Predict the structure.
Amino acid sequence: MIYRKANMNDYSEIIDMKNKVKERIIKQNLPIWLNGYPLDILIQEDIENEECRVVELDNKVVAYACFHHAQKEYGTGVFKKDNLYSFGRVMVRDGYVGKHIGDFLVSEMIKEAKTFDVDGMGILADACNHVALSLYQKHGFKKEGEKQFPFAYLDIHALYFK
């Protein structure tokens, strides 16, 4: 498995993966990623701003996440500390779910974030997304609370390095 920054050559592959993941979410009756989220333009901006990471396996992109400073996506005061990195829009390609691809992606983002001058990582997650929450808890994220955001009611989780 290769962990790397995505580039525009990956764009169509990521969009195809996103559309299939959204179909999977609908079939599982998970009330997440509503109202068109994530828009294709958002993923394009993630790539152009070098704020996304992918896992490549078998010469194809099999996982994706945006990866940037938490304040950029959520603003200040969401987490107990503001100097955090964050990830979101996590997706794993159909046929690769259950093969520890998401685990590898999260682990690599944590390792990378530890090389920055940040206090840790913060994420927002839907309480109904038990698979994602289990993965984040495995990596040491702890729930700090929950809050209604303009886009959804989400649980707030953080992993502090110092």
